[in-house]
Amino acid sequence: xxxxxxxxxxxxxxxxxxxxxxxxxxxxxxxxxxxxxxxxxxxxxxxxxxxxxxxxxxxxxxxxxxxxxxxxxxxxxxxxxxxxxxxxxxxxxxxxxxxxxxxxxxxxxxxxxxxxxxxxxxxxxxxxxxxxxxxxxxxxxxxxxxxxxxxxxxxxxxxxxxxxxxxxxxxxxxxxxxxxxxxxxxxxxxxxxxxxxxxxxxxxxxxxxxxxxxxxxxxxxxxxxxxxxxxxxxxxxxxxxxxxxxxxxxxxxxxxxx
Length: 258
Known about the structure:
GO terms for molecular function: ubiquitin-protein transferase activity. Residues 145-258 form the BRCT domain. This is BRCA1-associated RING domain protein 1. It contains 9 helices and 9 strands. The chain has 2 domains: 49-144, 3-Layer(aba) Sandwich (Rossmann fold), CATH 3.40.50.10190; 154-247, BRCT domain (Rossmann fold), CATH 3.40.50. The protein is of the alpha/beta class. 33% of the residues lie in helices and 13% in strands. The strands form 2 sheets. Strands 6-5-7-9-8 form a 5-stranded mixed beta sheet. It has a 4-stranded parallel beta sheet with strand order 2-1-3-4, with helices on both faces.
């Protein structure tokens, strides 16, 4: 949970504790392997809803025709009902449609899936048209009902933004389960230091698991922090936030970012 506690921490008896500590039951790799082999239809959003991102006019027309054949809907903008986003090819581009889809656990598929579905006249299985990495991690995270990417994290946006729109960055944070701070966190503030939430998607052995407040600044600006971290507060460029979304990982904060 957000305080870093696991089920075993709440075990009331030794028998319960031993059951929860059995090998392979609680590590994330086992969970992912398990998710790939069980029926997770109950966790999916509902009937398929398609959305194109970055498609040329001919590709978009083909997608619309396929939707008619398959009797599914096509949307022009992302919303919570979208289940599949179709892109021209990999790698995935940093469009708002793709990033919101990734954070929401949608399928992100290449246009080859459209062509294959046309050829068969059926809704083709998606796995072979999905990129491994961020898109797959995001989808499995949602199917497993795990916390969102920025769960347990707090973000303050410093100054003006040119490279990425501030409103878009805030929308990504909210979609990823993060909290927006209205005031700049101060490392020597008692309230700041007493926040004891844990970032679920940070490496448990890293400082980012318990230092969960981030000041985001425009990567294209001349501003550079004197220190990347003070107390429980990090200062990172907006590109770090985008990279986290695309990888669906809370990436390490490195000196090279500054």
